[in-house]
Amino acid sequence: MAGPLVIAIPKGRILKEALPLLARAGVEPEAAFADEDSRALRFATNRPDIELIRVRAFDVATFVAHGAAQIGIVGSDVLMEFDYSELYAPVDLNIGHCRVSVAEPVALAASDDPRSWSHVRVATKYPSLTARHFAARGVQAECVKLNGAMEIAPVLGLADRIVDLVSSGRTLKENGLVEVEVIAEVSARLIVNRAAFKTRSAEIGPIVAGVRAAVERLGRAA
Ligand SMILES: Nc1ncnc2c1ncn2[C@@H]1O[C@H](COP(=O)(O)OP(=O)(O)OP(=O)(O)O)[C@@H](O)[C@H]1O
Ligand SMILES: O=P(O)(O)OC[C@H]1O[C@H](OP(=O)(O)OP(=O)(O)O)[C@H](O)[C@@H]1O
Fold it and tell me: Cross-referenced PANTHER family, in alphabetical order (predicted)?
């Protein structure tokens, strides 16, 4: 008998939007899950057959790809970066909307034409996605991997350009940067480990269907 199904949820901004969706799909975590002071990483739910883990956004994809969790919620930015063949992403959750873009200092952009680039040095949390994007355009990209605060890299001379998430554009603006190219639109997805989807379909299928129905109901109500 397999143990409980494990659903991996990212800490941070997607968490708040994801919980109402899960609740509408009939999965509600114990109170400690929403307590930011709690140091626990693994939580029971109202369903004895389902537990939740709270991990970093990038690690959600890794846990699910390796089958340590069977289901997860993750931004499509993370899926594009890892490109794991073990992951199936059956539901666009219509939350966590933003875009992954190339940005550069306002002064550089004034006289720059992205179509003329042959080589770029880019600070990013997404080196794989960035290299693929530029390779497809015939541009050689040298990536400097950072884990956050990419926006300060250009002014400090670490890289001329950045590839990062943009939503309102406020972070770019406050750091003297401007968006020059959109690489992809981003939203959060429900992901499932492909092998588990086959071997535990009786348990996973209804959860996927429940989340899909919750997204559709919320979309109609909006
Ligand atoms: N400004 C934004 N607007 C909307 N969605 C966003 C925004 N920034 C990030 N996201 C989405 O939320 C996900 C998690 O981002 P968040 O900033 O909460 O985590 P993080 O700080 O990158 O994670 P960690 O601290 O684990 O490295 C991203 O992968 C993306 O899909
Ligand atoms: O266009 P905006 O609305 O300003 O949003 C963009 C910012 O949001 C994300 O960072 P977040 O706030 O999640 O902080 P982080 O650096 O910890 O990822 C992203 O990395 C940008 O820095």
Answer: ATP PHOSPHORIBOSYLTRANSFERASE (PTHR21403:SF8), ATP PHOSPHORIBOSYLTRANSFERASE ATP-PRTASE (PTHR21403)
- Distance from residue 189's CA to the centre of ligand 2 (Å): 19
Atom of ligand 2 at shortest distance to CA of 149? 16
Report pLDDT digits (tens) over 86-120: 999 999 999 999 999 999 999 999 999 999 999 99
Cα(17) to centroid of ligand 1, in Å? 12
- Quick count: other Cβ atoms within 10 Å of Cβ 175? 18
**CA–CA gap between residue 146 and residue 140 (Å, rounded):** 19
Q: Which atom of ligand 2 is nearest to the CA of 151?
A: 22
Q: Which helix (H) or strand (E) holds 8?
A: strand 5-10
pTM of the model: 0.95
